[in-house]
TrEMBL record:
Gene3D superfamilies: PmbA/TldD superfamily (3.30.2290.10). Residues 231-447 form the Metalloprotease TldD/E C-terminal domain. This is TldD/PmbA family protein. The lineage of its organism: Bacteria, Pseudomonadati, Pseudomonadota, Alphaproteobacteria, Sphingomonadales. InterPro entries: Metalloprtase-TldD/E_C (IPR045569), Metalloprtase-TldD/E_cen_dom (IPR045570), Metalloprtase-TldD/E_N (IPR002510), PmbA (IPR047657), TldD/PmbA_N (IPR035068), TldD/PmbA_sf (IPR036059). Residues 35-90 form the Metalloprotease TldD/E N-terminal domain. It comes from Sphingobium olei. Pfam families: PmbA_TldD_1st, PmbA_TldD_2nd, PmbA_TldD_3rd. Transmembrane segments: none annotated. Residues 120-224 form the Metalloprotease TldD/E central domain. Residues 97-125 are annotated as: Disordered.
Length: 448
């Protein structure tokens, strides 16, 4: 793995080579990932895997024509060929009036912020194996657990460097540590499966392996003996570990490319109240130790904490430079970039601010409803907002969680669901996208 300085230098050299070869403008992104993963099953070592890979992507512009290409071979001769091919491709590409680098006057010029994304600790495979065994043993020790899909632990490091021909160069790194366990409870056709995991930047922030394993076992056992549910309209309570998917659908509807294509269910909702006034959703790329934190975006623009939803109101679109030009607006620092292709737009660390009611208070007046802990399938239409997904979880009767349920479908329309959404007070920061327990009234439930 290259050092950060070497990675940044490699990216700058490739941009310089492209300019010398005739490109009017160019940018390069370098990415490297290295990880060690250890998995166990039924108390025995199952796999030890070490992976390391790097990729460099070049994008060039000839007038309003552009092309991109990537390679995993860092040999200078290969990179020279990469430049030649990319320029040849660009000369044959159709003109795009919106293509181009980010506005030069918007580039990050000051020293990138320090976000504490790297951990000096790098556990040995033996330590990862011990952690994986502890997690699985704890899960298998829960009464009612009858089999295991395994446990695992991993550590890794990633590095990103970006350089542009109009003056930006930067690089940053991040580490990761994770533990997981997945087990089964019951037997035969009544068997149920569930899991638990935790992923952090710094090892000291990682949950205890036994805690993770015990959580996995308890979740699996709780799902035993599911009952049938009659179809109808009822309140749905979303567990925090799956409620974030609703915010994912919101993000898909406000990214600049979707708006520019006019293919979003939120197309005409800018500045409108799409949630209750008690809902605020924040995107924070500068969160210290955040799982998706970054000091600059995929085009070299500065990033900042901002409210995507402010007291229920949709504040703006998430834009890369190309979609911003197409819409006659300014880029927002949300550009994301892979090794090949033009930048898109994405969020970083997102959370919904907590409400004032506890989860218990949120369901206290529910005579009959569902507490959903798992969603299945991808039955969501991003153009119309129609929502229909398989689900599993627990029946709520008279304000309390009762029997497990499975093989059900919940349906609605995202616009209606957003307006009816109420957050609880139990927000915790465990994922890249975090929400408290959520309640949505008036959803249609189809029983199994």
């Amino acid at each position: 793995m290259l050092s950060l300085d070497e990675a940044q230098s490699r990216a700058q050299d490739l941009v310089s080579a492209a300019r010398k070869a005739g490109a009017d403008a160019a940018d390069t992104i370098y990415a490297c990932n290295a990880s060690t993963n250890v998995s166990v099953r039924l108390g025995a070592l199952e796999d030890v895997e070490r992976s390391e890979g790097e990729e460099i992507g070049l994008r060039v512009f000839i007038g309003q024509r552009s092309a991109s290409i990537s390679a995993s071979d860092m040999n200078p001769a290969t990179l020279g060929t990469l430049v030649e091919r990319c320029i040849a491709m660009a000369r044959e590409a159709p003109e795009d009036p919106y293509a181009g680098l980010a506005p030069e006057d918007r580039l990050l010029r000051k020293r990138p912020p320090s976000l504490d994304l790297t951990d000096e600790e790098e556990p040995e495979p033996a330590a990862l194996r011990e952690r994986a065994l502890m997690a699985e043993d704890a899960a298998r020790s829960v009464p009612g657990v009858t089999n295991s899909e395994g446990g695992g632990a991993s550590s890794g490091r990633s590095q990103v460097a970006l350089a542009t021909s109009h003056g930006f160069a930067g690089a940053y790194a991040g580490t990761s540590h994770s533990t997981w366990a997945s087990v089964l409870a019951g037997a035969g056709s009544d068997m149920q499966r569930d899991h638990a995991s935790h992923n952090v930047r710094h090892l000291e922030d990682l949950d205890d392996a036994e805690t993770i394993g015990t959580r996995a076992g308890q979740r699996a056992v709780a799902r035993l003996n599911p009952v049938k549910v009659e179809s109808g309209v009822m309140p749905i309570i979303f567990d925090p570990r799956i409620g974030s998917s609703l915010i994912g659908h919101l993000i898909g509807g406000i990214v600049g490319p979707a708006i520019a294509r006019r293919s979003s269910f939120l197309l005409d909702m800018l500045g409108e109240a799409i949630f209750d006034a008690g809902v605020t959703i924040i995107d924070d790329p500068l969160l210290h130790r955040g799982l998706r934190s970054r000091p600059f975006d995929g085009e070299g623009l500065p990033v900042e904490r901002r409210a995507l939803i402010d007291r229920g109101v949709l504040t703006g679109w998430l834009m890369d430079s190309a979609s911003a030009r197409q819409l006659g607006l300014e880029p927002t620092g949300h550009a994301s970039r892979g090794g090949s292709g033009a930048p898109g737009a994405s969020v970083t660390n997102v959370h919904m601010e907590p409400g004032i009611a506890s989860p218990g208070d949120l369901m206290a007046d529910v005579k009959r409803g569902l507490y959903v802990t798992e969603l299945i399938g991808m039955g969501v239409n991003g153009v119309t907002g129609d929502y229909s997904r398989g689900a599993a979880g627990f029946l709520i009767e008279n304000g309390a969680v009762a029997h497990a349920v499975s093989e059900i479908t919940i349906a609605g329309n995202l616009k209606d669901m957003f307006r009816a959404l109420t957050p609880a007070s139990d927000l915790q920061f465990r994922y890249a996208m975090n929400v408290p327990t959520l309640r949505i009234d008036g959803m249609t439930v189809a029983g199994g």
